[in-house]
C-alpha cells in the first residue's frame, strides 16, 4: 500500500513538472481573460505572502484581531490548524498525549472551554479521542486537516456581531470558496512521514479542485493522512509519601495521596546503616512502573463549495466533513506501593493484607527517596486498548445581497453534527510476593526495575480483572442568522457603518455511557468459560516477548522492555468488550440529553473620521442573548423499598446583555493604538450542568455531582495595544489585557461514605472492594466534587509581537524574515498552604510563553524553523482545611520546548519538494512533585510522568496546475 502511494505521488509530480508546456495555451487565455488578474500584483509568494495578508487584516480591524491566511488554496502554513494558532500572542497548545498533536488551545491563561469556535461564522461543537464522553465545551481542532481551510480569524476583544460564549476569544475557521481565486486551480500534496520512536512510515495526501465559469464556481477538496506515535518512559502516578505519613489516614481537612506501610517485622528486613526513623521518613512513589504506548491515527476530510455570484448577489452552499480515528495500545508494568501493608501473615505473600514491602538492601538517595531491594513486592500488569472515532459534518447556506454600495443584507442557515465515541478496555493481572530492585537515583526517565523472576513467565500472572468503559457523545446544532449592513454619512468627514441582526442557535448534546465491566467479566468466551470462571488460568493466552517493537531503545538493560501481556486481538476478539457493551444497559448516572436554544439580537456601528487630522475608528455595540436549557437525565427514587432510576426533566433560562466598545487611532501613518472594553460570557460545561452523581474512573475513589442551576460565567475585560507597522509586512506591537471574571464555576469537595451516593457496587473497581465483604465497604470514603457559582478571578497580562521581512539586507540575505511573540499572564490564586501552615505563591497557568520563527524565501528555496516555549505551572491546590496536603508536595507540569523546521525547493510553478521536521529536540512530557518546604533536594527527581514521543520527519511534494 505504501509503495503504491509513493508511486502515485511521484506520478502526480511528473505530471505537474511537465504540465506548463501542456497547459501553456490555457494559462495564457486565463491571464488575458480575467480583469482581476490584470490589476492584482502579487509581489511575494509563499509563507511571507501569507504573513503579509494576515498583517493587512489585523491593521484594518478596529478591535484586537489576528489572522492566519493560507499561502494559496489548500496550502495552509502548518499541517495542523492548532499548530498555526500558537504563533498568535496569548495562545498556547494543549496536546493530545496519544498522538502528540495539538488539539485544543488555551488563550491568555484560560482553558479550552473559554473559547468559541465557529466555521464560516456558524458555531460548531466537536470532540475527539479521550475527550469524547467528557461533555465539555472544548473544541478539538485535530478533527480537521488544515488543507481544508483557507483562513483563520482570531478575535480577542468582543464585538456585538460575534457569537457569545468565549471569554478567552472567538476563533473563526473559514473554508475556501471557488471565487476566492477566479479560474481553475488544481492543488495537490503528498508526503510520507516517519516517527523515530514508532519507526513507522505513514502517508499524507490532499487534493483541491476549484474552477469558476462565469457566475458559477465549484470547489472540491479531499485530504487523508495517517500517523503512528509511540511513547515510552516512567510513571509514579499519584505522589511521593513516607511510611510515617502513609500508614495512617489523614486527619480531617488534610489528605495523603495514598496509604501504605513497610513490613519491618519480616525476618528479611535489613536496614543496614539506616535507622528506622530515617527509613520511616524517606519517600516512596505511589507506583514505580514502566509506561509504553502506540497510537495509530487516521484522518479523512472533505470540503466542497458551490458558489454563485451575479452583481450584488453572492450565494454559496458549503459543506465540510471529517473523520478522525484513533487506536491506542497502552501498557504499564511495575510495582504498586499504594495500598501495600502487612496485617495478616497467614495470607499468601504479596496479596492484599500481606503485601507490605520488606526493606532488604536499601539506601536513601540525595533527594530522600528510598531506593534499593525490597521483598514481598507485587506487580500490576495493565493492558489498555483505547478506540475512538469522530464523524463531523457541516452543511451551510450563505447569502449576501448588495442592494447598493451602502446597503447589503446577509443570511445564513446551517446544520452540523458530530458523533464521537471513546472506549477504554483494560485487563490487568498481578505478580505476587517477589523480590525487586527499584532505583531512580541515576535515571529518572528509565529507572531500574528488576527482580528475581522472569517477567515473560505467564504462570506468574494471577487474578486477571477487567475494566470497560464506553461513551457516545453526540453534538447536533442548527443555526440561522439574518443581518443588515448599512453605510451612512455623519457630520463632516465622519461616516458610519451599521450592522444589526438576529441569530438563533439550537445545540443539542447527548451523552450515553456504558459500564460493561460486570457483563464482560461474566460473559462466555469462545475459548470456553469466562474471565470470572477461568481466573488465573487465563494467563496461558498471554503473549510473550514485549508488547511494543522498538520500545525505549535508549533505556538501559535494567529497564524492562519485555513482559507477558494480552494483545489487542485477544482483547477485541476473545474478551470482546463490544459484545459486553451491547448487552449492558445504559448507565443512567452518567447519561443525559441537553438542548440549549439561544436567541440573540445585536446592534453595532462603526464610526470613522478624523481627530486632530488623524484617522479614528470606533466600534460600539450591544448583544442580547436569551438562553433556554432543557435537561433530560435520570434521578433515583425509592420504590417498594428499592432504589431505581427514573427519567428526569429540568428547564432553565437566563438572559445576558453584552456591551462592547473598541477604538483604533492612527497616531502616525504607521502607528496605531487600540482600546477595547466589553462584557463576555462562558457557559458552564454541560457535564456538570446535566450529569447526575457518578464515578468517572471506577478505579479511583472520586465522584462528581452535577448542578443544573449553574449560571454562565461573566467577564468584564479591557484591551490596550500599540502597533507600529514600520515597513511593508512588518510589525512591532505591545498590548495589555485585563479580565475580571465572576460567577466562576468552582468545585466544592467533600468526603462522603460510598453508601450515600446511591450507586451500584459495580460503579467501583474491584481494587476498591473490601475482600472480606466481596463488595465495596458502605463506609468507604469517597471524595465528592460538586459545583457552584462562587469564585471571582482577575486575569491580566502583556502580549508582545514582532514580524519583519529583512528586505533591506543585501542579496541573498534579503530573503530572510523573522517573527516572534511573547505572552505573560498574571492569574492570582490562593496561596499554597503546606502542612505546617506556611504559605507559598504558585501559578496554575503558565506565567509566560513565547514563539520564535525564522524563515528564508528566495528563488526556489524556502526554509523555516520555529521554537515554542511554555512555562511550568502547578496542577494542584492545598488550602487550609480543604485538601491540605499532609506531605506538603504539589504536582507541577514542567516547561515545554518544541522545535520544528521545514525546507522546500520549488522545482517549477507546478512542483515543490518539501521536508518537515516536528519535535526535532525530542521534547518529553514531564510532570513532577515539588516539595514546597524545600526539604528534599531536586524536585524533578520525583517524577510523576516522563514520556518521550520521538521526532517526526515528513518528506513530501506539493504543487498546482
Structure in words:
The protein is mainly β. It has 12 helices and 42 strands. It has a 22-stranded antiparallel barrel. Strands 1-6-7-4-5 form a 5-stranded mixed β-sheet. It has a two-stranded antiparallel ribbon with strand order 2-3. The radius of gyration is 30 Å and the shape is globular.
pLDDT under 50 segments (min length 5)? 1-43
Beta-strand content: over 45%
Structural class: mainly beta
Ends: how far apart? 26 Å
The gross shape turns out to be globular
DSSP strand count: 42
Rg computed from alpha carbons, rounded to a whole number of angstroms: 30 Å
Helix content: under 10%
The chain-level mean pLDDT equals 88
For the sheet with most strands, the description reads:
22 strands, antiparallel, barrel
The total count of helices amounts to 12
Question: How are the SSEs ordered, and which strands pair?
Answer:
Layout: H1 2-22, H2 24-33, H3 35-39, H4 46-60, E1 65-69, H5 81-85, E2 91-95, E3 102-107, E4 115-119, E5 122-123, E6 151-155, E7 169-174, E8 185-195, E9 200-213, E10 216-235, E11 240-241, H6 243-246, E12 254-255, H7 276-280, E13 284-285, E14 287-310, E15 313-336, E16 358-364, E17 370-402, E18 407-439, E19 448-451, E20 462-489, E21 495-514, H8 517-522, H9 531-534, H10 568-575, H11 577-582, E22 592-611, E23 614-639, E24 642-668, E25 671-682, H12 686-690, E26 702-704, E27 713-724, E28 731-753, E29 781-805, E30 816-826, E31 832-833, E32 839-840, E33 848-858, E34 861-870, E35 873-874, E36 884-885, E37 889-893, E38 896-908, E39 911-918, E40 924-931, E41 943-948, E42 952-960
Parallel strand pairs: 4-7, 12-36, 26-29
Antiparallel strand pairs: 1-6, 2-3, 4-5, 6-7, 8-9, 8-42, 9-10, 10-14, 10-41, 11-13, 14-15, 15-17, 16-17, 17-18, 18-19, 18-20, 20-21, 21-22, 22-23, 23-24, 24-25, 25-27, 27-28, 28-29, 29-30, 30-33, 31-32, 33-34, 34-38, 35-37, 37-40, 38-39, 39-42, 40-41
